[in-house]
Amino acid sequence: MKLLQQIWVVVVMNIRSLPARLGMSLATVFAVAAVIGVLMFFLSMGNGFKSTLEGAGSQDMAVVTRDGSRSEINSVLSQEQVNLISSGPGVARGADGRPVYSGELYVIVDGIKKSSGTKVNLPMRGISTAGVALRDQVRITAGRIFTPGRNEIIAGEGVLRQFAGFELGRKITFGKSTWEVVGIFSTGGSAFESELWADARAVQDQFRRGNSFQTIRLRLATPGDVTALQQFAANDPRLNVKVETEADYFASQGEAIRGTVYFGWGVSIIMGLGALAGALNTMYTSVAARAGEIATLRAIGFSNISAFVGTLVEAILLSLVGGLLGMLAAYLFIDGNSASTIGASFSQVVFTFSLSPDLLQQGLWTAAAIGLVGGFFPAWRAARIPVVTAFE
């Protein structure tokens, strides 16, 4: 009998004997399922957060912040700096010949998370109507845009999903000022949906920011090309600013979730060790229970390789079943759900858990690895069972 046929016979024999050790086999399957489910939770969180930030970034736009600041909340720019950088080279100009830009503020206000009732930091952006127009995906889904000069807010759909009190028509008090929600907007699921927007001048007045801003967004004459603008800023000592494409800016903000993803891998590895111990125990028990059968096969001409591979395949199959079960649970209960977490600016970012084919592939490989390691040593023992055992 050929080696592949021998391996097939051993695999089928092992699978048929599973009901005899069903409890231990199911324990291994569920342990692996728990590992993969937890791993998918953290990876889909990181993937969704990353997609939300990348959706906000564009190569058509440049973002200018104070040099050395890591996010908008740490940046301060004067009106003079706004005027200087907006007149620099590489900035697109409108039909009227004026540079296309938006000076913006980023302040933190209080919100209440619906799921827990706890107080959280929410981002409120002071922006002009020109700044709204610079974001191509913005769409008012209810109500209207704010009126310049008034204490009016438009809320992102992400804010509406996750936080209480921002429904259309609601009046909200921040400090000593009262604001009215006059509109709801969508930006296609990007990070901007986690924000409240209001007129920049009104925000400056109510939050005592004078004529200062925190960021400038400029439309680039050539998408992705900020070289001339960076050189212009470097040559003017009055500026002291950092210039980057909006896509690069939001990519760097995504670093905030990287630690969470690493934590998820750490937790999964620790749990994986437990699942590995379970797999080893299950497979050792399987080999011990079938020692006579394996020795009998050896006695009638089966090779020790068939015993080794057949046992290893059984372990990998059990782990893959567990992995698929964990991914199914993640898909049913996690994928597509909305949540929020703290971003680089110490405020909430609303995102959607997203399971991609790449993440599912990582889950399968992890499950297969648990089965491979958990089955290797029991398979090695199976291959070394002496033929004489068949006659005991």
Main pleated-sheet profile: 11 strands, mixed
Could you tell me the number of beta strands? 13
Shape: elongated
Briefly note the structural class of the backbone: alpha+beta
Summed up, the helix count is: 12
State the helical fraction: 40-55%
H-E order: HHEHEEHEEHEEEEHEHEHHHHEEH
Indicate how many domains the architecture comprises.
Answer: 2
Cα distance, first to last residue? Answer: 26 Å
Overall residue-averaged pLDDT value: 84
Q: How many whole angstroms does the radius of gyration measure?
A: 30 Å
Low-confidence stretches: none
Q: Tell me what portion of residues adopts beta-strand conformation.
A: 15-25%
Could you characterize the architecture of this molecule?
This protein is an alpha+beta fold and 392 residues long. The protein has two domains: 3-54 and 256-391, no CATH class; 68-239, no CATH class. The protein has twelve helices and 13 strands. The strands form two sheets. Strands 1, 2, 3, 4, 5, 6, 7, 8, 9, 10 and 11 form an eleven-stranded mixed β-sheet that branches. The protein has a two-stranded antiparallel ribbon with strand order 12-13. The two termini are 26 Å apart.
